[in-house]
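Worked problem 6 (solution included).
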Amino acid sequence: MKLNNVGVVIAQRELSLSTKAIVTVVIGKPEPFPDGNGCYCPYQIIGLGDQKVRYAGGEDTAQALMLTLQTIGAVLYASHEAKSGLLTWNGGTDLGFPDHDFNPRLSPP
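Solution. The predicted structure is:
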């Protein structure tokens, strides 16, 4: 499935690059897949990489959203900019998305 935009925006975060540039993460509203099997949640990272609209899919909208947040974290933390300490949020290198060690089952209640 190819998407041209994220649709209805439900969340957005601005990150900073040391070059004074802004990286914007935009997350769209989770929706059912057109075939009715599961749901997807679109996202776009503007200012880093190819800026294509992508999505993660799940059994329902909650899982699609959770997997989208994890995917965004994986993409951001794996970027050269993050690994070099050039990508920050609120002045720190914790970008506020789940990293590769994230496991929601291990989080405190």
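Discussion: The chain has a mean pLDDT of 91.
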